[in-house]
Fold FAD-binding domain-containing protein.
Amino acid sequence: MLWRGTTYGEPFLTGRSMIMAGDGTQKFVAYPIETGGRALINWIAERPLDGEAPDRGNWNRPADLAEIGRHFADWRFDWLDVPGVIAGAEAAYEYPMVDRDPLPRWTFDGVTLLGDAAHAMYPIGSNGASQAIIDARVLAHSLARGDLAAYEVLRRPATTALQLSNREMGPEVVMKLAHERAPGGFNDIEQVIPYAERAGIAAAYKRTAGFAPASLNERPSWNATR
């Protein structure tokens, strides 16, 4: 289950930092979306729940802040008080951590799909909305050339790979690896996940998601010009 909310609080770390804390199962993500004095912090809390996920299609179910905070009661760091952030929200909402299997086809005659309708994926890597924007760019580019089929040829394989990567936690797999290799904690990350391994995980996800600098610089423009 995922819970999300926003809270005004003191800036943490650099004041512009995004943090992901957890062990691959239970997780807390936070980052500022408004700065200047007290920061407006966007946060997402995640943990597994027993039983069937309620109402898979509803992303706006009101959640109980006290219940969320109970699951993160001891998550206090020198630079961020997680239960305090949760308690400081005016409201929170819950939705299940679900995706859809990759579709074998998006386009039917003159109708096609994009965004979550085409490739609903786990919210890993802060990448879902970006893929919908890319869909729109490629679709406009293809339509400007009168070639609707080209849109699916370009986008469906790419988003299928990303859907499957997100099921394996994408770049966030480093949290799972750290927990498995050093469940009692550690003082030096190099002894647990060496830099080369961390860099390799990040680079692989960038390639899959399509935002590795080299591939971006080599890709033709998707400007929709006639």
The longest helix spans residues 148-167.
